[in-house]
Write a structure and sequence with these properties.
Layout lengths: L1 E5 L3 H11 L4 E5 L3 H5 L8 E3 L6 H7 L6 E4 L4 H13 L5 E4 L8 H10 L3 E3 L1 H13 L6 E5 L4 E7 L21 E8 L2 E3 L12 E6 L4 H7 L10 E5 L3 H9 L5 E6 L2 H10 L5 E4 L5 H6 L7 E4 L4 H13 L4 E5 L6 H6 L4 E3 L1 H12 L4 E8 L4 E7 L11 H4 L5 E8 L2 E3 L12 E7 L3 H8 L1
Parallel strand pairs: 1-2, 1-4, 2-3, 4-5, 5-6, 12-13, 12-15, 13-14, 15-16, 16-17
Antiparallel strand pairs: 7-8, 8-11, 9-10, 9-11, 18-19, 19-22, 20-21, 20-22
Helix pairs in contact: 1-13, 6-8, 6-13
Length: 446
């Protein structure tokens, strides 16, 4: 598959790295030679220092033979123009990163497709959905639903109140336990656990389960005393903040603190009347106390500065807030944020790259998530008739090391998987794997 990625920013480079190990023909183009040179020599791709809106540049990059053209520069107009040109020059499919939610409305889909822009991605919207998932439960670091919630994946950090510390996994209840531990994040290492592995203090443990048993996992994780979230304070009135308020459940009350008065005035037009807008500096402790941070269960930092977001979340934690979420767009700071016990870290570049990556898979994949902390991915595959995964029990299928099946959805019902499970055609199977392995798993489901 020949793929041209226009834009060597963090979305484009992360996507290029995801794909470079999969024998794809990858071309990364950008006008900035310095951005291209940062990639180093250990990534198997070709770089082209040309403008993605130059017809001669696109021709030189070989766009006429491209199976997929992805425009992820910071400029929405440039992305749209590049996709239109790429289609007219012979690219089979195009994807544009956008900043305008209106473009995503279904009524505009056919219009953009006719222009040559086949798919649109709005990273701020995707990030907002992840934030809302993160704040629904104060004791959970990361949360995803599969097949409308029939099966869920949740990650939570083990404190000294957890009942399952230092117990070999095979002793946790045998085949009848209502969950599957798919991964353990320990310091800088991600472990796909076996029966003799144990859970240790401060591990982030990823469970798959059904909604019915979430309270049970909360109990064994020692998180029953964590307050339910009803009040949320957001620092920074960004586009992500606006989208976050729109996806918030009705029972949650939200305040946005924004330093720029003109942005505050604009926010009053963009958000619902029940969202309170406060003009002030979210780093001002006196202001936070005055605005009732002691009564807030969740604090979300969404300024454009990663350091500010991390420090603000640390301050909120010290003031008694149980759940904090920080937007950290500087990838180098993500591990630091995790080590400081920030809570949930949101990186819209990772989220966008995962979403685009899903479009490139040959198998029927409806959901791909990048676990920000764990250098791992989760994918939801739909099993095709006669595929390899259906020919034997899970223990005999021969999945590669570093991959595990977290569960499946059959006829709308979530089912946990053991080694003796036989997967059937049309099942939706949730697979957890260490970084950059999803493409290798396609052959089991096709």
């Amino acid at each position: 598959m020949k793929i041209i990625i226009a834009g060597a920013g963090e979305v484009g480079t992360h996507l290029a790295k995801l794909l470079s190990g999969e024998n794809q023909d990858i071309i990364l183009m950008d006008e900035n030679e310095e951005k291209l040179s940062r990639l180093g020599n250990n990534i198997d791709l070709m770089t082209v220092c040309l403008s993605p809106t130059s017809i001669s540049g696109l021709k030189e990059a070989g766009v006429s033979g491209a199976d997929l053209f992805i425009a992820v520069t910071p400029d929405e107009s440039q992305n749209m123009t590049a996709c239109m040109l790429a289609t007219s020059l012979g690219a089979k499919k195009t994807v544009a990163r956008i900043d305008n939610y209106e473009y995503l409305l279904p009524k505009h889909q056919e219009f953009f497709s006719k222009l040559g822009v086949h798919s649109l991605i709005y990273p701020e919207m995707l990030a907002a959905k992840d934030i809302v998932d993160a704040v629904k439960m104060s004791w959970i670091r990361q949360w995803w639903e599969f097949a409308g919630g029939a099966l869920v994946l949740l990650g939570t950090k083990m404190r000294d109140t957890a009942e399952i510390l230092n117990v070999p996994l095979h002793e946790l209840g045998g085949r009848n336990i209502p969950f599957h531990i798919v991964a353990i994040k320990r310091n800088n290492e991600t472990i796909i656990p076996r029966g003799d592995d144990t859970i240790r203090l401060n591990d982030i443990v990823y469970f798959t389960t059904t909604k019915k048993y979430i309270p049970y996992i909360r109990k064994i994780a020692g998180k029953e005393n964590y307050a339910d979230i009803r009040n949320v304070m957001i620092m920074g009135g960004s586009r992500i903040a606006v989208r976050t308020t729109q996806y918030m459940p009705e029972y949650m009350h939200t305040k946005i603190i924004e330093n720029d008065i003109s942005r505050c005035n604009r926010l009053t037009e963009l958000v619902d009347d029940d969202v309170m807008i406060i003009n002030g500096d979210g780093r001002d402790m006196e202001l936070l106390v005055e605005e009732g941070i002691q009564n807030v269960e969740a604090f979300v930092a969404l300024t454009g500065n990663a350091e500010t977001n991390i420090l603000a979340c640390l301050a909120a934690k010290r003031m008694g807030v149980s759940k904090t979420v920080a937007e950290v767009e500087n990838i180098d700071y993500i591990s630091m944020a995790e080590s400081l016990d920030i809570g949930t870290v949101i990186n819209k570049k990772f989220i966008a790259a995962s979403h685009i990556y899903q479009m490139m898979l040959d198998a029927d994949v409806s959901n791909v998530k990048c676990l920000t902390f764990a250098n791992a991915d989760v994918a939801e595959f739909t099993v095709k008739p006669g595929s390899r995964i259906t020919r034997s029990q899970v223990k005999d299928v021969g999945l590669p090391k570093g991959a595990t099946i977290g569960g499946l959805i059959r006829n709308g019902e979530g089912i946990l998987v053991t080694g003796n499970t036989t997967i059937q055609e049309h099942d939706h199977v949730v697979v957890f794997c260490l970084g950059m392995m999803i493409k290798k798993l396609e052959k089991y489901f096709n």
